Amino acid sequence: MKTVHDGSTTGDTMMSSAGITDAEDGQLPRGILPTWAVFGVSLGILAPASTLALAIGVVVTIAGNLSWITWAVTSVLVLGFAGGIGWLAKRFTTTGGTYGLAARAAGKPAGFFVMVTHLASSLVAGPACVIGSAIYLDAFLQKVGLPASTWTLGICAGAVAVAVTALNLREVKLSAKLLLVIEFFTVAVIVVLLIVVLANSDTGPIDSRQFDFHGFSATAILATAGFSVFSLAGFDHAATLGREARHPKRAISFAVVGSVLACGVLYIVATYIIVLGFRGLPIENMNAPLDTLAEHNGVGWLGYLIDIGVAISFFGSTLGVMAGTSRTVYTLARDGLLPARLGKVSARHGTPAGAVTTLGAIYLVAGLLGVVVTAAETSYGLLGTYAGYMLIAAYGLTALAAGYCAVRSRSLRLGIGLATVLAAIGSVLVYWYSFNPFPSGARGVVAWIFFATVLGYIALYCYLRLRKQLVFARIGESDRRTTLEVDADEQAGAVR
Predict the structure, then answer these.
(1) Residue 12 pLDDT > 80, yes or no?
(2) Sequence-separated (6 or more) residues with CB below 8 Å from residue 9
(3) pTM for the full model?
(4) pLDDT, tens digit, for every residue of 98-118?
(5) What CA–CA distance (Å, rounded) separates 82 from 253?
(6) Going by C-beta distance under 8 Å and a sequence separation of 6 or more, which residues neighbour residue 177?
(7) Domain CATH for 164
(8) What is the domain count for the chain?
(9) Average pLDDT across the chain, whole number
(10) Looking at the domain assignment, is residue 483 inside a domain?
(11) Is 450 a domain residue?
(12) Residue 446: inside a domain, yes or no?
């Protein structure tokens, strides 16, 4: 059998048509996810309920009354990223997410740097979501009478990591359904609380403090940009479903742009109402702003629903992050860039079992360390900040790759041009204000780790280009076959 570029054989497709399933052939199944399921994965990873409950409090503590501007700026920036990724998703199908898209759009160097930065972010974001879920599970247990304990937090984190791994070993459509149900339920509960806050406001819905730009500081607004990008990120994992989605070029583009737009509007409005509701309340209560607002507005019973709902929302986000990351790891293994066992697919469920079990172990260990070594809220914030720094690099490079592809292919239009400019300018501004002045304390340590990681990646790139050229040549190769197969499927469907 003749060998093709991705190291597979032309006989693979023949075997599949002869009755051997994709899973038995070591590949993910094709065309099993409808558009709603792809959107569900994207929305579930964004986990808007968890951001409303925890991340908004972190931003308000730093940015104060003008926090809604932070979310407005972040939303515009991330929409630029999403626009570039969505534009590429309409043209290429991939199981490697932004890594695969960047490699196809702008070559192997772009694919490499997107690969390493996005993978670093995903490996940190997963445990951060595990910790977030444990925080709110523990808060719920305290409400029903269980005393606060590090042991309880540890057990919660361990249970979340194990359960997420078990579900990711099952069929991906099950995870997609869970993600949609989880987010609609939890967001609905929080929206009820926000309506109560508006109705009970002594000053009405207009809060003049939030429109007072005297002393406006771009530094204060963008100081939390790394963290807020992390809170509005993860949508791109839908791009890893290029093989499993039906009509992937339409479904994935819709999912990545639509989910960011919906969540961005929600965060701006919710932040405004939360700050309005905290008029006269101490800012220190921002560790659990929704619980505080529920008590202050006479609906403390909503706190029970919010805590368990947000815990489940974080669980859903963890579920989605692992689903997306495992498919990226699977693709890297098929490209020969990671050990071959990480590319193993479950014959029963058609899921990347080798990658899922490895990620499960990482989530378990990192999640437990995050709640034992220091305060869980601190671990969540620091891990989220590092993940945000890495995501800005991965998203920015992918959007620039999209712009480069548009120019090269003479398909540059207003939409992709605007997305590229937003991504480029936004990335530079966020990094400038994140590191100027340079953060101090624990956040300063995170910043130094970020810079050390980037230098390490540059050194690795040089090493591969100079000493491991055969390994470097494999970047993005397996996704070329994915595109050919999906295109053939869609053409056959059009004929039928």
Answers:
(1) no
(2) 1, 2, 3
(3) 0.80
(4) 888 999 899 999 999 999 999
(5) 8
(6) 37, 40
(7) 1.20.1740.10
(8) 1
(9) 82
(10) no
(11) no
(12) no
